[in-house]
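Chapter summary example.
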Amino acid sequence: MNISIQSDTDKYTLTEFRHIEEIALYLCDHWGLSKQHCSLNISFTDDAGIEPVNVQFLQHEGPTDVISFDYLDDYEAEFADPDDPFVLGELLISLETAQSQAKNYDSSFNDEALLYLAHGILHLCGFDDHEENDIKEMRRAEQVSMKLIKENFSQARIIA
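The structure predicted for these 160 residues follows.
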């Protein structure tokens, strides 16, 4: 599985893309998301970049932390092509929201950004956070994901 990283903001400096890719791939493998000849696109942005997407696709006013676009239902393994990987999903993550929420939750900026990465991947794996029971399952999966990141990546970072 390929992970593609991009930054749509000059406000923040990301760590090496390869490092972020390794963390994302590890989580995808752990949660069973990895598929042959597929890719996941991850874009880091700011609140101004995520807000119009939030309004257009989710009909929510204002910025949000992470938006996941899931295309997995269209994946057919027999048509998987190594020369043209199937995009199974896209994540849009607001680093500006991560920075402000880190202060609110007494967390580090990097940990909040890592949490958004995990949260987005979990959405692609079928976790939801709209009903009370779903929220509890999502929070447990987030905790497992963060623990796995910390155990397997001693210097886990999104922000350089």
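To summarize the output: DSSP finds five helices and four strands in the chain.
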